[in-house]
Structures are given as C-alpha cells and as structure tokens.
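I am writing to request your help with a piece of structural work I have in hand. The matter concerns a single protein, recorded as an amino acid sequence and a row of backbone structure tokens. Could you please explain, in whatever detail you think fit, how the structure tokens follow from the sequence? Thank you for your consideration; the sequence and its tokens are set out here:
>
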Amino acid sequence: MTIIPGGNLCANSTNYIPKNDAYDLRLVLGILNSNLINFHFKQTSTNTNITTSEINNIPIINAAGVQRSRIISIVDKILAIAKDDDYLDSSVKKDKVREYEKQIDQMVYKLYGLTEEEIKVVEAKGE
C-alpha cells in the first residue's frame, strides 16, 4: 500500500481508499503495511490480487492519542526517505526504512493487543 498524490489516475484493477476526514491515510498506511495485517491476509487469501471485499474485511483499529501520532510520524519519515532519488540504490536508506517498519509493527501489535506468543507466530510466518 502507498499514498499517491492527487491528480494521478489509477488503472481499472487498482484498489484505493479515498481521503476522508474520519481517518488519517498515513495511519491506515502504517497499519495496512504491518506484519500483522500481512499475516491476516495470508490466512484469508490464496493470491496477491486483493479484492475490494478483502480490503473491507481487514480489521483496522483507529488508533488515538500518542499511538496514532507515533505511527503517523514514522510513516511520514518512511515516505520522506522513499521520495529520495537515490532511495532504491541506497542500502542505508532501505535499512532505515526497515527499522521504521519494525517500529510500526511493534506499535500495531500493541494496538491490537497481541501477546508475546502471538507476536512470535506472526513474525515466524512473515519470514
């Protein structure tokens, strides 16, 4: 998942979530790209073509307060790094993004109330 600037056109097979005042797309982006949601999707689908109904069935918790702010802040950092012209050629920048993604994973695990044992299962299936 990613955020695309306004004015871009999507192909007919692209799923998208429109901007809405009820939620922050950066929060949704952080959650949807987490290990937990990837684990959830792998349990419920056998292919990589995600349908609209599958997206609608992903359990998204709308974080509040500090959790919300921290996830959004880290997503902003990832998006800024990924915009750099040399991002794809920079192992340092890719490593930094992976570090940020791991931080978001930990916050999402906490947001969804996972136990240490459940986290181990999710992380083992993600490898």
